[in-house]
Amino acid sequence: MSGDGRTVHGSRFTVHGSRFTVHGSRFTVHGSRFTVRASKGLGDRVEFSTQIDGREEQIKSLFAQTFAASEGADEGRLIAALVERLLNTTPREDLFVFTQAEGEALIAAAIFSRLTYSEDARSVFILSPMAVATERQKQGVGQALLKEALNALSKEGVDVAITYGDPAFYGKVGFEPLDEDTAAAPLPLSQPVGWIGQPLQEPALLPLKGRCTCVAALDDPAIW
Questions:
Q1: Which of helix, strand or coil describes residue 21?
Q2: CA-CA distance, 157 to 178, in Å (whole number)?
Q3: Residue 100, SS3 per DSSP
Q4: pLDDT tops 80 at residue 125
Q5: Which of 11, 79, 116, 189 has most Cβ atoms within 10 angstroms of its Cβ?
Q6: DSSP-assigned beta bridge partners for residue 3
Q7: Which residues 6+ apart lie within 8 Å of 8 measured at CB?
Q8: What percent of the chain has a predicted confidence (pLDDT) above 90?
Q9: d(CA 76, CA 81)
């Protein structure tokens, strides 16, 4: 799930088109334990922290405004409520929040939470939801943030990243179609074509074993 103008109807995800490199931006990830330099061309520093730094309302507002602009006020409120539940009810070890800011303005955010497979010890996280500020869409912001996020997750030892979104967009950062034999979803999918993922530690994704469960905030059939 992410916020922009293209929506796959019947589910809760949209995508960001992007073509250009983002300059002069700051990336932050919450739930990690290290600091690294930004990729060449991104400027500033990529800062990683274990805290959300009191920015919960700013993060929630970004999602509310972005989804309201693309899909209406009701959707904006629904996604803002989802983000609030994720931030307030998810154990910190089960959550990564990546944000991108220009100065004091938050322009993008991506939230990853843990998926657990009952017979598999691998670490799996799902991206849901994601938002890029309306005025910064189609400028490469979403792709740039996701590349930083996936690199950070890999360094943290996460084995697999999954999302539920547009394969055309997320395919640009390495996500590929999944079937239920490779990775079961935690709830029935209204748009199975949007179930996509990628390995972060191995060249190929071996099937994830066992029943899949998500964090409590995502355990709602309405968002799948």
A1: coil
A2: 21
A3: strand
A4: yes
A5: 79
A6: 131
A7: 14, 165, 166, 191, 193, 194
A8: 69
A9: 9
Q: Identify the helix (H) or strand (E) that includes residue 80.
A: helix 73-89
Tokens of 100: 């991108």
For helices 56-71 and 73-89, the axis angle rounded to 10 degrees is 150
Say how many residues make up the chain: 224
Q: What percent of the chain has pLDDT over 70?
A: 76
User: How many Cα atoms are found within 13 Å in the side-chain-facing hemisphere of 203?
Assistant: 0
Q: Where are the alpha helices (DSSP H) in 121-175?
A: 141-155, 167-170
The structure tokens 């691998």 sit at: 122
Gap between the Cα atoms of 205 and 202, Å rounded: 7
| Number of CB atoms found within 10 A of residue 37's CB | 9
The answer to whether residues 21 and 42 touch, using CB atoms and an 8 Å cutoff, is yes
Please give the single-letter amino acid code of residue 126: I
Specify the CATH architecture of the domain 2-219.
3-Layer(aba) Sandwich (3.40)
Tens of pLDDT, residues 176-191:
999 999 999 999 999 9
Q: Where are the domains of the chain?
A: 2-219
CB 154 within 8 A of CB 201: yes
pLDDT in tens, 52-110: 778 899 999 999 999 999 999 999 999 999 999 999 999 999 999 999 888 788 899 99
Could you tell me which of 195, 175, 174, 199 has the C-alpha nearest to residue 185?
195
Token reading at 94: 């089960």
